[in-house]
Amino acid sequence: MNMLFPNENQLIQEVQAGNKEAFRPLYHQYITPVYRFILSQIGHREDAEDLTSHTFLKAVQAIGKFRFEAKFQSWLFTIARYTIHDYWRAKYKQGKEIVFEDYMSQEVPVTEENLETHNKAEAVTDKILKLLPPNYRQILKYRFIKNYSIKDTAKALKLSEENVKVLQHRALKKAAQIYPLPYATT
After folding, report:
1. Are 136 and 164 within 8 A, CB to CB?
2. 104-126 burial, b if ≥16 CB within 10 A, otherwise e?
3. Helix, strand or coil for residue 65?
4. In the predicted model, what is the mean pLDDT of residues 28-42?
5. What is the pLDDT of residues 127-166, one digit of tens each?
6. Which fold has domain 8-93?
7. Would you list the domain boundaries of the chain?
8. CATH assignment of 95-178?
9. Contact between 122 and 107 (Cβ < 8 Å)
10. Residues 6+ positions from 165 with CB-CB distance below 8 Å
11. pTM score > 0.90 for this model?
């Protein structure tokens, strides 16, 4: 059965007008490419599935702001990229929470196991950073160790914010190649 399919702009306008069902064909058209993109960046199926869901949820919530200045696909993949950035930022912070000062301020007893875990995480981080090219290492140190924003990193390194974003993406990708997560699937 050959059905005529309205173009994306018509569907988007219908969704913006309140027709929630008009989003369904957009979802079906882009679910696989968005999932594959996220999986290629994350390497873990369950997390990629969750992030794909988050991406589409954010898209539905923000579709009223879509202004047809870019292609819907580009807009959707931008949302996916920011979702991935948030994921890596949260993952990084989880791994960096074990520091001596935290134990002292929260009166958590320092155990041999906690100390060993922290030392291993720190050793892996150092090892990865040493294997990265200097410009990638510098970006990651500013962004995640010093916890600078994109804007502050750009200012400190005398780069454009866009250049910082690109270098950060490439550095994280390279770091993942150097030390893939143990549960990552390819």
Report:
1. no
2. eeeeeeeeeeeeeebeeeeeebe
3. helix
4. 90
5. 777 888 888 888 888 887 777 888 988 998 999 999 989 9
6. Rna Polymerase Sigma Factor; Chain: A (1.10.1740)
7. 8-93, 95-178
8. 1.10.10.10
9. no
10. 150
11. no
